[in-house]
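Final report, Chapter 2: Outcomes

The project's central promise was a pipeline that accepts a single protein chain and returns its three-dimensional structure in a standardized token representation, suitable for archiving and comparison. That pipeline is now operational. To close this chapter, we reproduce one record exactly as it appears in the project archive, with the input sequence first and the structure output second.
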Amino acid sequence: MNTIVDTNYNFPNQKSVYKGKVREVYNINDNLLVMIATDRLSAFDVVMPKGIPFKGQILNQIAAKMMKATEDLVPNWLIATPDPNVAVGHLCDPFKVEMVIRGYLSGHASREYKAGKRILCGVTMPDGMKENDKFPEPIITPSTKADNGEHDEDISREEILANGIVNEEDYLVLEEYTHKLFQRGTEIAAEQGLILVDTKYEFGKTKDGKIVLIDEIHTPDSSRYFYAEGYAERQQNDEPQKQLSKEFVRQWLISNGFQGKEGQQIPEMTDEYIHSVSERYIELYENITGVSFIKADVSEVEKRIEKNILEYLQA
């Protein structure tokens, strides 16, 4: 199955290209950004050696739908999606923090809690909670926005302000937008029989100084979902929650001795396992959006993407 794991395009008026863990961002004339969602799979801040069929299309299309569903609350960077894997938007100067918001004690927060910590990113977590319990109110636990190859690090609101990473006026807007988006995301998830457990948002500033939502939103790579049906019973019986997120990849890696730590080897991902991950991402798409996934033609995926971007830029 053809996957797109790396691009090397040269578009008219291209100024630069930035390659993140999953997305590749082309700067067009210091005005537009062309963002290509590749099929790369990242876990524990490490990019896996093989791509996952249709993953980039899935992430791009969920993000575009969710941007549209929240644009009345929070302005965003998106202008168009000329290809299933491509988003085009306004050039922004990104804030160097990721706004992580958690409604439940899961994932990283749960691992920290089990290790005895009760303060995460300067926020106190109540005693007496068990994994996947709901917090009394959603908590914001920011992380640094790491450069290539580096790990994102937990950081508190106080550290962000003290170090001048974001000024207080802007940070108050980021907090307000984060809460609004999470509330809307929670409502959208509930309509699909899901619980939005936690997620992260990234923001940037446009040339005219407006703070906008950038990157992705409410995708299985940036968010964790539980199935609402049976949630209470599973909690009561101390059973694992049935979830929709990339956590299933992390758990597979952990069970095979890999957590991104120095000296650890990435386990072999067989074709059969890669196919199963692709199928899981399609399931995530259909559950999150409520519509059937239509696979794009990937017979010449790199040429298709280039053609669609060039046609959009020329138009």
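Archive annotation: The CA atoms of residues 84 and 296 lie 7 Å apart.
This record, like all others produced under the grant, will remain available to the consortium after the project formally closes.
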